[in-house]
Specification:
The chain is mainly alpha-helical. It contains ten helices and no strands. The protein has two domains: 67 residues, no CATH class; 93 residues, no CATH class. Helices cover 67% and strands 0% of the residues.
């Protein structure tokens, strides 16, 4: 049983760059329903002031429990609908930081002329992470490839990604993906 729990931990593991609040929509909706049903003013008063202010601002003219119930319903509806394209619902800054955290500042690896080129700085970053490439390089390659696929699919996505992660150009993403994959082929395959 203990090994099964340890395996489950490994499967459910979130990395330091993962958004800690990232969960499937249905459990989030259930948690909101529970919070709304068990809400008390004493509990709310014990919450940090900033959290209280955030919930009150989000609820607007509704009570906080009413807002929680409405938000839970919206989460359930959204979970059952198609995913909107980026022309319909533009990529937001918070979404960029949650989905592509390893691409933020992708162009900042060339510090003060430390490297002759962007390609050399990316290679330096990859070499620095070696041999523990599975911890950050592999996820960064995956994020770069996902972003490249979405850029090819949607000019709205590409424009918003550049707005929120200025160095994440299609060229820089391709360099990172290509050099990362070349490194993985050379050093991590039999």
């Amino acid at each position: 049983m203990e090994w099964q729990v340890l395996r489950l931990k490994r499967v459910l593991r979130t990395e330091y760059w993962d958004a800690p609040w990232r969960q499937p929509m249905q459990p989030l909706a259930s948690q909101l329903d529970y919070m709304a049903a068990t809400f008390t003013s004493d509990f709310f008063a014990s919450c940090p002031t900033k959290a209280q202010e955030t919930w009150i601002a989000a609820a607007e003219k509704k009570s906080v429990p009413e807002f929680m119930t409405e938000l839970a319903m919206l989460l359930r509806v959204a979970d059952r609908q198609y995913e909107p394209d980026y022309d319909e619902v533009p990529l937001a800054r918070w979404e960029t930081w949650a989905r592509f955290p390893l691409l933020i500042g992708i162009d900042r690896w060339a510090y003060d002329d430390e490297y002759d080129s962007f390609e050399a700085s990316v290679q330096g970053r990859i070499d620095t992470e070696h041999p523990l490439c599975e911890l950050e390089i592999v996820p960064a390659i995956a994020q770069a490839l996902e972003a490249l696929a979405l850029c090819a699919e949607s000019s709205s996505f590409a424009a918003a990604l550049l707005l929120h992660a200025s160095g994440a150009t299609q060229d820089s993403l391709a360099v990172y993906a290509d050099l990362g994959q070349a490194h993985m082929r050379t050093h991590h395959r039999p």
